[in-house]
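re: that complex we talked abt at group meeting.

here r the seqs, copy pasted straight from the sheet so there may be weird spacing, ignore it
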Amino acid sequence: MGHITLKTIAERLNISIATVSWVLAGKGKERKISPATQERILLCAESMNYHPNMLARALTRGVSNTVGLILPSISDSFYSAIAKAIELSLDKIDYSLMICSSESETLRENRMISMLKSHRVGGIILAPMEISKVEIRQLINESYPLVLFDRFFPDLPANYVLIDNEESSYKLVDHLIRKGSRKIACITINPHLHHMNLRRKGYEKALKKHRLEINPELIGEVAFHGYEKDIPATLDRIFHQVPEVDAFFFASHILAIEAFQYFRVHHMDYNRKFRLGSIHEEPLFQNIAPHINVAMMPVAKIGRQIVDILAEQMNVKYSPPNTTTLETKENINRSVVLPCKLIIRDNN
Amino acid sequence: MGHITLKTIAERLNISIATVSWVLAGKGKERKISPATQERILLCAESMNYHPNMLARALTRGVSNTVGLILPSISDSFYSAIAKAIELSLDKIDYSLMICSSESETLRENRMISMLKSHRVGGIILAPMEISKVEIRQLINESYPLVLFDRFFPDLPANYVLIDNEESSYKLVDHLIRKGSRKIACITINPHLHHMNLRRKGYEKALKKHRLEINPELIGEVAFHGYEKDIPATLDRIFHQVPEVDAFFFASHILAIEAFQYFRVHHMDYNRKFRLGSIHEEPLFQNIAPHINVAMMPVAKIGRQIVDILAEQMNVKYSPPNTTTLETKENINRSVVLPCKLIIRDNN
DNA sequence: CTGAAAGCGCTTACAG
DNA sequence: CTGAAAGCGCTTACAG
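got the structure back, here u go
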């Protein structure tokens, strides 16, 4: 299965490998190689169906035109949508994507990081777990092109692409209150993840603004690992302690999904009984809960921003959609906070 | 950002690169290298945090320990679940995964194939579009390790991992009939995709068995591209032509999703009015249509089989879960048809 | 028991 | 205008 290489072409044309390389790299005129030769090379490469060996190219360049993406779970709809958005953006700068699923296991995440480094990927994109901060710090120290997203660690100086967690939560809960809800449950995940904290803060801020009491009995915090199992008990408790609960704010769509299961199993007419709000949603939410209000993550924009920042770090010539010519150089972090789009559906 | 290489270690230890390479490759005793030296090398590599440069390794070996996966759409729940399953299986043979989303565009699919070849991936996994058969034939001619899944092209001699399309459809529709449905609509996709044909055949087979007429008015075929837009008109037509329709068989979960939207928009009490059946489902189906019967694709098993067959072609020493020692060698196609699990939910 | 050396396919200073 | 040559980091016959 002999591949066509530069050598193949060079021998065919009785010419040096170097010349072929220059021409195929598009630096023909720069090197003042005769148009005739250039033509011959281009034609030959075309007709022989030459494809450069990326491995060799990457080896000489010391870095490959592949980017690594580590996701907590590739089968989550949000993360897979992000993956798609990133891949589409990378297309434009001729980079490929290597997607890994850490399954929210720190061990796996670390393994994937070192695997990606072994492959000399040009950059790494990561929605990190908390405990892996050591490895990430390492990446930062090496000034490895890196962009973190979705999750934020205040003491980790990196490039982030985030959403306005607190603000979106605030708006969502504010809306629920304005519509008349007074006993709003907040379902969230153990806040060792900072963004979950922010979402909860947004919830509390809205309550405070309307001079409503913050009732711990209305707050349900589920475990990060195995949250699915936690939801039923948590909801049981809330319904027991505050039977008059009249609305639910879900700090994440994955929590809402589990709650819907619970509601269904318990034959609760949740679409009538409760106002609902959720950070992000699944495509099918509209069917399950037609009136749920949602702060939609701007998936496509997140993907573009991530690639934009990464490209800058990788020194890829690339005209970003936003023509703000940043003065920032490497080692100066670029973090972006994108607003969610608020979708109000209970204005019946 | 100097990486630690074999040379670094060799110089540190005043020893040859070759020796370091042998030991780190685990062939120390085979090469009869003194235990003392081995120990020193291992320790040094460990302490210097050595990670082999996969690019260099792949370049010398002529092939990388990465596998390419081309999906029609990574944000589809079925495909992202498959991706996850494949990645988990590849882990065990120390292969990495490069996931690409063709977005069901033939041009993109072809681009991804050639990109993956440029990266000298060890093998390619693909749920192909029809038109790309040329490129795939090329891969087969080069005896490039290749496994196709989900979609089947009878005249394309390749390794396939498929489900029992006809049988599962038959069982599903047979069940609907046994429960009393007589006017069963079949919603499917233009059958230039063979597996869609098979699913329709299963539907017809069940009708025939029960001596029911096959009514073309009950069959809704939507376009492959932009099927979302087609569903409403198709359902409109069916309801117009056969108002007494009493059940729906969806040849794919993505069709069911769109139908649910339609039902909702038209305020139809579909859970009461119709029996439902679908090939595969989304996690949230249970909430939207608690009584839908489903032929579940065995995602994890599909992933394992794919990797199993691919590993064989890549000559990876690997003990497959099924200890059936196949006699097959390369160029002899191994195709596997896996049964779906029938989930009956309308036995109220 | 260990090392020198060729080679994988490319890029890129350097030389002419 | 074009080529010879070094080097990227590894593997692996070959030699001793």
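couple things i noticed - The first strand of chain A starts at residue 66 and ends at 71. The CA atoms of residues 65 and 95 of chain A lie 5 Å apart.
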